[in-house]
Structures are given as structure tokens and as C-alpha cells.
Design a protein that fits this description.
D-Maltodextrin-Binding Protein, domain 2; five-stranded mixed sheet; alpha/beta; Arc Repressor Mutant, subunit A; disordered N terminus; 306 residues; 12 strands; 12 helices; single chain
Length: 306
């Protein structure tokens, strides 16, 4: 572009967010889907941004959207500006005035415990906001977050936090639990001892799977579940049905434990508490994402808050 004759145009936050979404999704079409806009609108925003700066930001000779050196130089400041604008809207704006739809991904553990309380708090504090829920595994939800398919992910950690803002929600204690009908001994049990009983487990796609597999392996036993599934709630139902022992969140099944339907096994070594976090893309301009993540932290009942 020739900088001698161009006229300076005002820069728009939406233009910067559009640039970020193109980079995240890899295409103008992907950005259009993520921003609920037409592809022509996306192209127009980038064209206006390029005219305002007097430089080309994308290499049009490639089929995939690739930033030029000037585009690469703009990316980090754009992310910082977009994130700051969203924080200002969240902190200064009137909560009652927030409207729109926010897409929230939640792991089964949270769906089983604090999701109803969170949704009730959203309804009370942000009456103009609609929520679309996606219940899935951590890995799937993190992928969807990075792709722009959801706005907030409430998942288990630890995980790679590059490109996302992480709001700690605390930890949940997982313990080995057996149905009373199995008559599992009350004495101390090692992984070898536990492996003699039918073990119900989370699927290999679960964030918990490596932890469980390592617990058995380091204890000299093989993790070989007789039934696997991908949700904690189903795992708990199968345990209550007397089909085997499983690793479950103690707090979620406190009532069944108190009633004698389930019992906590005395296993060694202990399994470390599971971290819970709320994630959103650092570059997002949607103040709803900040609001939902902050609210999830505020109402969290998980222990060991950081």
C-alpha cells in the first residue's frame, strides 16, 4: 500500500478482534462463524483496518490466512487492547444492562455439583443474558474454546494455559468409593488390593485417566476397568447400582455415604485433589465471558481456593 496518499481512518475494536479470530481459526470463514458475521463483513473489517494503518496485514497469496510481518507485529498489541476493553466493560458497566448469549462448556464434575447454583446466579445477576451449555470432557472443551466454539470453559486442570485466561475455582477431593453391597474390606488397601475388585473407570479421553492409570501402575497393579464411561455422573450411578468401585468426588456423594449406600475406601497412596478452573480466551472482547468466569469463582464451593 502507498502510505503517501492514504487518509487515516479510525481504528475499531471489532477490527482488532476480527484479526485475532482469523489467526485463531486460520481463515476468514472461520472468523465469520466465530463472530456470527458474514465473510464479507470480516473482509471489510480487515480492509478498513489495513487502510487505517496503511499496511497489509494478511498475505493474500496463500489459501490459508497468514499474517504479514506487520500483521505479526500488530497481533500482541491487538490482543492486549481487546482484553483491556473487555475488562473495562465488565468492571465499569452496569450488570443489569448486559445482554446476549454466552456459550459455556462444563465438565461433568461441575455439572454434577455447582452448575445449578451458577446458572441461578447468572439468572439473578444478569437477567438479560442467555446461556448455551455444552457438557463434555476437558480436552474437548479446551479445543472448542481455542476454536471459538464456546466462550467460557469450566474444566479440570492442570493444562496448557497459553492464549487463555485462567480463573482458579479451587479443588475437589476424589476418593475410591464402593457400594455397600460389595462388602469391600474396611482396612487399608493398596492399588494391588483394589485391582482384585471390579473397577469402574473414566474413559481414556478423560482428564482423570492418566492420574488413575499412574496410581495403579506406580502401585504395581494394572488399571483394567470392567466398565468405562466419560462422565462422573454415570460412573456414580453405576457404582450405586453395585457394579464396582470407582474414583468419585467425595463431596458430590456425601449424602449417599452418610446414608450407608456408599463407603469411602481406605486406600494408599492418596490421590491429589483435582483442580477446577474457568477459562476464556485472553483476546476476547465479550464482557459476558469475564462476567461468567468471575461469577463462577465467586460462587465456587470447591475447597483449597488459590
Amino acid at each position: 500500500m502507498n502510505g503517501a496518499n492514504f487518509r487515516l481512518h479510525p481504528m475499531d475494536i471489532r477490527q482488532l478482534e476480527t484479526l485475532i479470530r482469523i489467526v485463531e481459526t486460520g481463515s476468514f470463514a472461520g472468523a465469520a462463524d466465530a463472530l456470527c458475521a458474514t465473510q464479507s463483513t470480516i473482509s471489510a473489517r480487515i480492509g478498513a483496518l489495513e487502510r487505517s494503518l496503511g499496511v497489509e496485514l494478511f498475505d493474500r497469496s496463500s489459501h490459508r490466512a497468514r499474517l504479514t510481518p506487520k500483521g505479526q507485529e500488530l497481533l500482541k498489541p491487538a490482543q492486549e487492547i481487546v482484553a483491556l476493553a473487555a475488562r473495562v466493560r465488565h468492571q465499569i458497566g452496569n450488570a443489569q444492562a448486559l445482554t446476549g448469549t454466552v456459550r459455556v462448556g462444563v465438565v461433568g464434575l461441575v455439572a454434577l455439583t455447582s452448575l445449578p447454583k451458577l446458572m441461578s446466579a447468572v439468572r439473578d445477576r444478569y437477567p438479560g443474558v442467555s446461556v448455551m451449555l455444552d457438557i463434555s470432557l476437558t480436552a474437548s472443551l479446551v479445543d472448542k474454546l481455542r476454536e471459538g466454539a464456546i466462550d467460557v470453559a469450566i474444566v479440570t486442570g492442570p493444562l496448557d494455559k497459553s492464549g487463555v485466561t485462567c480463573v482458579p475455582l479451587g479443588h475437589d477431593e476424589f476418593v475410591w468409593i464402593a457400594p455397600s453391597t460389595l462388602n469391600v474390606p474396611s482396612g487399608r488397601m493398596t492399588p494391588v488390593d483394589l485391582a482384585r475388585w471390579p473397577v469402574l473407570g473414566l474413559s481414556s479421553q478423560s482428564h482423570h485417566y492418566p492420574v488413575i492409570e499412574r496410581w495403579f501402575r506406580e502401585g504395581g497393579a494394572e488399571y483394567n476397568p470392567v466398565i468405562s464411561c466419560n462422565t462422573v455422573r454415570v460412573l456414580g450411578d453405576l457404582t450405586l447400582a453395585g457394579l464396582g468401585v470407582s474414583l468419585l468426588p467425595r463431596r458430590s456423594y456425601a449424602a449417599e455415604i452418610a446414608a450407608g449406600m456408599l463407603k469411602v475406601l481406605n486406600t494408599t497412596p492418596e490421590i491429589a485433589p483435582v483442580e477446577l478452573v474457568a477459562l476464556y480466551r485472553t483476546s476476547t472482547t465479550n464482557s459476558l465471558t469475564h462476567a461468567i468466569a468471575a461469577l463462577a469463582s465467586e460462587i465456587s464451593e470447591f475447597s483449597g481456593r488459590l
